[in-house]
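Changelog-adjacent note: as of this version, every example in the card shows the full chain rather than a window. The one below runs 259 residues end to end.
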Amino acid sequence: MPIKHFLARTAARRDKQRSLRRRGQTAIVPRVIISRPASWRRRLLLGSALVLAAGATGFGLYIAGQLSAGYDSLHSAGRIRDLAAENARLEASNAKLTGAYNATTTQLDIERGARKTLEIQVHKLEDERSRLNRDLALFDNLFPTAKQNNLPAIRSFRIEQVVASATPATWRYRVLVMRDAQAQGSFAGEFQLLVSYRLNGQEIQAQTPATGKVSEPLQFQHYRRVEGRFQVPPGAVIVGATTRVVENGRLIAESVFRP
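Full-length structure tokens:
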């Protein structure tokens, strides 16, 4: 009997421990709350609100950072717009002024061209007048005179500047040599030209044909025009020129030009 009683008590004790263990396991199980899932509209609204809140927070932090650094983007943006408008206004004004300048420049070019054309025409008319005067003197001297001989004479001697703006300046000489209308045969001699300059306070004479020392054969019957050009040395000024007609070393005629 004692053994059965002991086994019964042991079994009862085991059952009691199992019951307590089951109770302990049931007591620590967490409560499960079953709720309805949120709709997609609520989720969308909640997400949009979170995004807007994050954006506003970021923009506020951005502005606060700029202000703390001494930079105002809003004011700068307004200033940039004002400067862009001012730049557009200045560009329009510049385009208008450029158009007026181009029109004025074109008008000035036209006037310069017309003035140059008039100067060329005046120069041609002066040349034509000089030629007519020389021809008139030629025809006047072709008539017989009381004193008739075979010796030539210098009827006209001129020196004029061709191009004033050129460096060195270029000059042209023109000489008319004539004999009486009743002169017989032809004259054979030599034509000479010698130009004098003032350079550094001293008077000098040309040494080369290019600067005005000319010597060439001269042969004609009644008249002969002699023309040519020479250049003034840099810094020199013409003070005079002399032209001569020489026959076998003997001076036949001479004429002096003074500017």
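Structural remarks: The radius of gyration is 60 Å.
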